């Protein structure tokens, strides 16, 4: 069964705001039209997807994800907890990632982890709570904030494609954390929508 997905919800208000605060980004947004970002609303499924995506290409993620759905059916805690780390690894990921995915599924099945509690937390608290799990870092947590929870103001320094998109947009040969943060603050509080465009620009 295919994973349920939807598009990140944003509209003209967000687009107009970003155009008003950054002319360069605004011109790119006008040229590109509305860019749709597919997200996974289910938190566990989205977390597994984010772990799979750590430090590998979009194409590789797609291949592994198809394999996992074929192998396990629905990506639910119950289904994944029944697998061994070896079974999960055989889908084409590292053993470290397989162990991490298995561990999180086990915690949820045992009621030791309640992902729904994330909805009541601030972005910083979500990052802190998820980063406390073995194998989850800030980037994975930030991807959850955008790609599952639709939080509005996330621009991830740890995301190579977002950095590359920013460099292409502003015609920079390199970018420092300070420069990155300056742009991130300019986009706020609509950073996630800026991220959607920066991702697209990076792959153009």
Describe what you observe in this structure.
- The structure is a single chain.
- With 204 residues, the chain is an all-alpha fold.
- It has 2 domains: 15-35 and 153-202, Endonuclease Iii, domain 2, CATH 1.10.1670.40; 42-147, Endonuclease III, domain 1.
- The protein is built from 12 helices and 2 strands.
- It has helices at residues 12-21, 23-32, 43-52, 58-72, 77-81, 85-89, 95-109, 123-131, 138-147, 160-170, 177-187, 191-202; strands at residues 6-7, 38-39.
- A two-stranded antiparallel ribbon has the order 1-2.
- α10 crosses α12.
- It is elongated.
- The two termini are 31 Å apart.
- The model has no long low-confidence stretch (mean pLDDT 97).
Features:
single chain; 204 residues; mainly alpha; Endonuclease Iii, domain 2; Endonuclease III, domain 1; 2 domains; two-stranded antiparallel ribbon; 12 helices; 2 strands; 60% helix; 2% strand; elongated
């Amino acid at each position: 069964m295919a994973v349920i997905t939807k598009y990140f919800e944003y509209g003209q208000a967000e687009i107009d705001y970003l155009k008003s605060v950054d002319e360069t980004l605004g011109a790119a947004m006008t040229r590109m039209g509305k860019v749709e970002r597919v997200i996974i609303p289910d938190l566990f499924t989205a977390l597994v997807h984010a772990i799979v995506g750590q430090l590998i290409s979009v194409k590789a993620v797609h291949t592994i994800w198809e394999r996992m759905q074929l192998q396990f059916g629905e990506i639910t805690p119950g289904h994944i907890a029944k697998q061994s780390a070896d079974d999960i690894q055989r889908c084409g990921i590292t053993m470290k990632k397989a162990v991490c995915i298995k561990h999180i599924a086990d915690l949820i099945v045992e009621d030791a982890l309640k992902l729904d509690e994330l909805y009541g937390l601030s972005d910083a608290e979500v990052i802190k709570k998820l980063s406390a799990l073995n194998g989850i870092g800030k980037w994975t947590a930030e991807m959850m904030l955008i790609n599952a929870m639709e939080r509005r103001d996330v621009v991830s320094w740890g995301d190579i494609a977002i950095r590359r998109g920013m460099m292409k947009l502003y015609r920079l040969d390199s970018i420092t954390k300070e420069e990155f943060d300056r742009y991130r603050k300019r986009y706020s509080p609509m950073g996630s929508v800026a991220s959607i465009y920066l991702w697209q620009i990076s792959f153009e």
